[in-house]
């Protein structure tokens, strides 16, 4: 099982959002999202990584995507963000059967839900205002075609991940996977951090999650 040790950093004490992002970039654990699980049908890959840290109360994620031909259509939360240029975090508390997904497109449009199965899901509507999303996009040209480098900074409070108010993330083990996808982008792709051994694309597969060990 792929494992990532997630450091504890006091990002919430930073004076500005940008200071918090810089601290995360300097001191966060790095996970490369580089598993192209369905190479025959969907061979597209691109450089993607996510930096990860926590402060006991919240999980901090900063995705960095390089050289994508982006699609940005969905502007309303709970829309079909996976069809756009999208990054995702799926997680499961140790010992729980349910899992949660946080899917965010390049615009910061978010889909978050608690799942018993792929089809049986409950939207995490009450937690949406508490989840921070901040993106940057830099457009450039590569071989006479427009591509974009973009980042997505997500801050997810522990309650949205199923932890109680009196619980601390320190010492916890969380089963999880990080994804990059874009079902309707110019070059459809499905990339993960922890590999998935299935014949066709499916991210709703906790049996293939890796492990986050929270400092």
Characterise this structure.
Strands 1, 3, 6, 7, 8, 9, 12, 13 and 14 form a nine-stranded mixed sheet that branches. A five-stranded antiparallel sheet has the order 2-4-5-11-10, with helices on one face. The longest helix is centred in the first third of the chain and has 11 residues, at 17-27. The chain is mainly β. It has one helix and 14 strands. Strand 6 and strand 7 (99-105) form a beta hairpin.
Summarize the entry for a quick read.
The chain is mainly β. It contains 1 helix and 14 strands. It has one helix spanning 17-27, and strands spanning 3-6, 29-32, 35-36, 48-54, 58-68, 86-93, 99-105, 110-115, 121-123, 132-142, 145-157, 173-181, 190-192, 210-214.
Assembly state of the chains shown: single chain
Number of E-type strands:
14
Shape: globular
Whole-Å distance between the termini?
18 Å
What class would the helix/strand composition place it in? mainly beta
Please give the count of helices.
1
Q: Point out poorly predicted stretches.
A: none
Q: Overall mean pLDDT score?
A: 97
Q: Mind summarizing the main beta sheet? A: 9 strands, mixed
Helix content: under 10%
Our Rg estimate from Cα atoms comes to 16 Å
Strand content: 35-45%
* Secondary-structure element order, N to C: EHEEEEEEEEEEEEE
